[in-house]
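Run folding on both entries below.
>entry_1
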Amino acid sequence: MYDAEKIIRKLIVATALLASAALWWPGPVQAMRLKEVASVQGVRTNQLVGYGLVVGLDGTGDQTTSTPFTTQSLTALLQQMGVTVPAGTNMQLKNVAAVMVTAQLPPFAQPGQLVDVTVSSMGNAKSLRGGTLIATPLKGADGQIYALAQGNLIVGGAGASAAGSKVQINHLSAGRVPEGATVERAVATPLNQGEYLQLDLNANDYNTAREVARAVNARMGSGVAQAMDGRVVRVRMPEGMDARVAFMADIENLPLELAAPAAKIVINARTGSVVVNQNVSLNPCAVAHGSLSVTINSTPVISQPSPFSNTGTTVSKDKADITIKQEPGSLIQLPAGTKLADVVRALNSLGATPQDLLAILQAMKTAGALNAEIEVI
């Protein structure tokens, strides 16, 4: 009995140690796959665009007095259907809207397959809700027709207006037609053309190009892949379409051990967004941050003639009071940071807004205290 209790205690202790080890023991590093860092040249989506009409709107269509192209388009459409509109007819349309139709033609799409389309108003239509898109040819960059779109619109917004008041939720001037376009023409791909296939890396990195070529050669044989530069890897393909498809299926899931990306900070000057990756570090530096505010108050001053005066006019002028206030900016010392958390903590200690950080980060880069590349978009 004593031995059984002793064995149970040992099992409980071992189980607890294993459970705690799962929390602190570093797990295996998950390598990225080849298809996540590279794509096949020429195997991509193609943009399609077309001009069409949406009908069946509940009085929320284009006001034809300011959008004459809607009337012209409807007249041309009716003529194609054998309906002749007398010249000089003033058509007051409220249920028709001119729209642009866009779609993405995926790679390897074949005639008869369906793709989604986005419909956007071109004129002054109040809403496309409840409308139906009339058959619209969608053309590619070469001017050829690759799909034909038609169907009922789905608009995610809603709105109402009355007596000068208006309430609107989301956007009413654009909608989608799920599977609303039928592919009419296929786009040729380089998968079965030539002896070599080119892999284009998503980012320019020599180490990634070398690792891609090394992984392909380790799996498919020496000399199959060759890194041409920091973005292009050339791969020799086997003969036969079936063999090429199997070849791509084998290499696209190859694991890659990639080096850490370069330290980089991306700044959006329009929105004030600042994105910092994990490799950004700081050198010891000191930063003084203060704010300057300017306040302008305008007070109207009216001067008018005396009562019962036969001469003089009332004069109105504005008196402006301008106040300039500058908050004191103390000199804050930022320690050297080798981790992203240290950099964020150091910048947050300044109490700066994202707009202020734009100038602070650029000044730190100029001073040599910021170890990162800054990209302004």
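>entry_2
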Amino acid sequence: MEKQTMNLTRFLIEEQRKYPSASGIFTELFSEIALAAKIISREVNKAGLVDILGYTGSKNVTGDEVKKLDIFANNTLKHILCRGGNAIGLASEEEEDVVQCESGKYLVVFDPLDGSSNIDVNVSIGTIFGIYNKMDDFVDKKQFRRPGRELVAAGYIIYGSSTMFVYSTGTGVHGFTLDPSVGEFILSHKNIRIPEKGKIFSINMGNYKKWDKNLQDYIDYITEEDKETKRPYSLRYIGSLVADFHRNLLYGGIFLYPADKKNPSGKLRLLYEAQPLAYIVEQAGGYASDGKTPILDKIPSEIHERTPLFIGSKENVKELEKFLNR
């Protein structure tokens, strides 16, 4: 089938045929996530026209102010995934505890709407998700205390000038763009590979004075001029994790969200932000680290645990680690 007419469901079915033991449940689960993504995309695109912008006035369990679209996205994913019968348990940024569904084979973790602080200014935002096999039918927090290497799939949806669904099931990374005229995600980026090294770095430079000296030295190094090593690197920072990650996945480079004096454990969540993106970047040939340990080797002690995150082209992240571990 031509690339321009290969939709997400058909692509998953074609991939499934490579595994004789596949039951089709996995494809159904992805179809449910894709449906939720279409509904969220619709609401994001018309957000300025309806009363769905702005804050709710409350904070979620991790202390962030909650946007109306955060709640809408979380409820949409929760409703569709639990009704679908393929996910038995969920862990979300917007839920204090894990969510038990009636039946299913998989556990799904997700940040329903990453970058929601940018909604009101029309900056790209996204949904991040990861999928694990269940351990048993009773879902508790213990089932989610596992390394990212046990993920069976991960992905993200970016809502921008177009809506893209990017995922991996362990056999490469593939991207699909939503065609609103037919309501389908169409294959647009097959076998995405991140460059071994890039010239882009993404970090909030306003926090420079709060960082560890070794990190400051690294930033000073990559912003120095040196033609032989093709420095300085170019700073590109949107402030939306999915948007910054997506650009660097395609062009190469490194995204940095370090610990600092205000957030000594980092700020991003290990289970449903860092680990799914680390899974994707490694499938694309990249690397993710907390500065010392590969993100996929870390085991969350609780579902909302935070972590520093350095992710992107392998050579860039390895270069950073040398500075951090001097």
